[in-house]
Amino acid sequence: MIILKAEREIGYMREAGQILARTLAAVKAAVEPGISTMDLDRMAEKMIRQAGGKPSFKGYKGFPATLCTSINDEVVHGIPSTKRRIKEGDILSIDIGVIINGYHADAAVTIPVGEVSPKIQELLAATEKAMWAGIAQARAGKRLGDIGAAIQAVGDPLGFGIVRDFVGHGIGQSLHEDPQVPNYGTPGYGTVLKAGMCLAIEPMFNMGTHIVKVMPDQWTVVTTDGGWSAHFEHSLVVREGEPEVLTVQRVESPQSAVGSGQ
Ligand code: MG
Q1: pLDDT the model gives residue 251
Q2: What is the pLDDT of residues 164-192, one digit of tens each?
Q3: Is the confidence at residue 258, as pLDDT, over 80?
Q4: Ligand 1 centre from 160 Cα, in Å?
Q5: What is the pTM of this model?
Q6: Any idea where the domains of the chain sit in the sequence?
């Protein structure tokens, strides 16, 4: 069952999205060779709690941390660790969720650490572009297949493997609600989108095969061929026109910036 959200509920998700965006920006800025994924996790949890939010992932089905940190051939759901240090030339996916008043926002980004090869740069750029192509289809009257097809239309011609075992999702009072939002599909098919639906759109593109497996830690998802993987995600509200993306950082107006002493 797909739950349409009232504006009051969307307001909470918008607030969660803004705390998320500010936290994610700070975590990205802190990424450098030598820092551990646990250092990043602690920073994120502190920022979220200081802003009055709660981490969505911590405790979700037993997940132990605030962030999912997935490096190189890790696709999603990597567990932060003091032993896992970022190296020059890595790519790092940071996935983060925030709860305000019981409502979630969810987003992810993959960043290069220093220099990466042109092909890896292309992988990152294509995955982000595909996410935005999917988001552009998230309008009332369109269908779920339009989102998946738009994502596929970016990844397929470049030969990237588009992960099928993990997909986007509805979001609201639960981190994962109906509908599932696959990163593949046929235009004009699937559930019709309605204003007030809240979706997390999150393509995962691999350098090689789309086939993935879960590691013995029961969480970390890796590519079966060792190819590197990128993941981008935003949470949004379907509207009659352009979707409202909740997890993009809004720039404060000059007045409020002065007022807050920042
Ligand atoms: Mg998600």
Answers
A1: 83
A2: 999 999 999 999 999 999 999 999 999 99
A3: no
A4: 20
A5: 0.95
A6: 7-245
Instruction: Compute, in angstroms, the gap from residue 127 CA to the centroid of ligand 1.
Output: 15
CA 261 to chain centre: 31
**Burial class for 217, CB neighbours closer than 10 Å (0-12, 13-18, 19+):** exposed
Residue with token string 């975590």: 27
Rounded-to-integer distance, Cα 200 and Cα 86, Å: 27
C-alpha 60 to ligand 1 mean position (Å): 12
Ligand 1 centre to CA of 176 (Å) is 7
Fold of 7-245: Creatine Amidinohydrolase (3.90.230)
> 76 CA to middle of ligand 1, Å?
10
> How close is the Cα of 77 to the center of ligand 1, in Å?
10
Residue position matching structure tokens 């970016």: 154
